[in-house]
Specification:
The protein is of the alpha+beta class and 311 residues long. The protein is built from eight helices and 19 strands. The N terminus is likely disordered.
Length: 311
């Protein structure tokens, strides 16, 4: 549904779904669409490597304040992992590490090894990543041949399925938590199998509930110019899993100044703030009479306390 707010100067706010081609970085995509739309307040909600393709969710205008919440969504990927040799970047862009292994495991062995990655675990990020060490990005240090010691991060793999194999190329579908590196999965799979492996190709097919089929190819988005703003997903619709309440006019005035609101300021009862998958309590959406998102709030002491105000 077109976002009417995107057509009003100073009211741009929403999420734009882009199908990124192989080649540009995620930052390149943002830069190109800034030029296309003239909107400077723009960011993305989860980096894709330059070689990777697929769904990149951008936040524009006031919705940039929601970036951290949207970044935490689970993501689904189609990946191709090449068995037989690892690389220094853990993907096909890197240099081989050691000699290729000619004797490769059979399908049953590969499938069993993949099954061992399902669940929560600590994952060591790739040396060539944007993780920072003493204020510098890991890939900058790696390119200088400096020692790169990255702290493992806990991630969760919800599902991991081998979808096909041709020779040394294994195709998988993986759905995992935010912060999961498919390149690291390829590296670790090669280590478990004892044959080495690296990521050959990657396509992100889902971010949260959004499928890549709902995204605009980057070149089509650029061709639309500012008309692409009509494709923005309104902020309230971008957070479908959060409970929400509609505020009365006095309630809207209080929230605009960052003040808490009680039952007398909105229609209906106080919503229950359900815990997220991580055990943290999720915020509540505060909406105006038309259903537009004006703020996110935490429920505390019988009142809703704004923590992010969009205006």
């Amino acid at each position: 549904m077109p976002n009417a707010e995107s057509r009003v100067p100073g009211m741009i706010s929403g999420v734009l779904l882009i199908d990124k081609p192989s080649g540009p970085t995620s930052h390149d995509v943002v830069a190109r669409l800034r030029r296309t739309t003239g909107e400077r307040r723009m960011g993305h909600t989860g980096t894709l490597d330059p070689r990777a393709t697929g769904l990149l969710a951008l936040v524009l205008g006031q919705a940039t304040r929601l970036a951290s919440l949207l970044t935490g969504s689970d993501k689904t990927y189609d990946a191709a992992i090449r068995l037989g040799v690892g690389t220094d970047t853990d993907d096909a862009a890197g240099s081989p590490i050691g000699q290729p292994t000619k004797s490769l495991p059979d399908d049953a062995t590969v499938a069993a090894a993949l099954g061992g990655f399902v669940g929560s675990q600590d994952q060591r990020p790739p040396a060539y990543s944007a993780k920072k060490i003493a204020g510098r990005k890991a890939y900058e240090l790696a390119r200088e041949a400096a020692p790169v010691e990255l702290t493992p991060v806990q991630v969760t793999v919800h599902s991991l399925t081998m979808t096909g194999r041709t020779g040394d190329l294994v195709r998988v579908e993986v759905r995992a938590s935010s912060g999961f590196y498919v390149r690291a999965l390829a590296r670790d799979l090669g280590e478990r199998l004892g044959c080495g492996a690296h990521l050959d190709s990657l396509r992100r097919t889902e971010v949260g509930r959004w499928p890549v089929s709902a995204a605009l190819p980057l070149d089509e988005a650029e061709a639309l110019g500012r008309e692409v703003l009509g494709r923005l997903i309104p902020p309230a619709d971008a957070l479908p899993d959060l409970a929400g309440v509609r505020l009365t006019p006095p309630g809207l005035q209080r929230v605009a100044h960052g003040n808490p609101v009680g039952p007398e300021h909105f229609f209906g009862g106080l919503p229950m703030a359900a815990p997220s998958g991580t055990g943290q309590v999720r915020p509540v959406k505060l909406l105006d009479a038309e259903g537009r998102l004006v703020a996110l709030a935490h429920s505390r002491g019988g009142a809703l306390h704004p923590v992010v105000v969009l205006g």
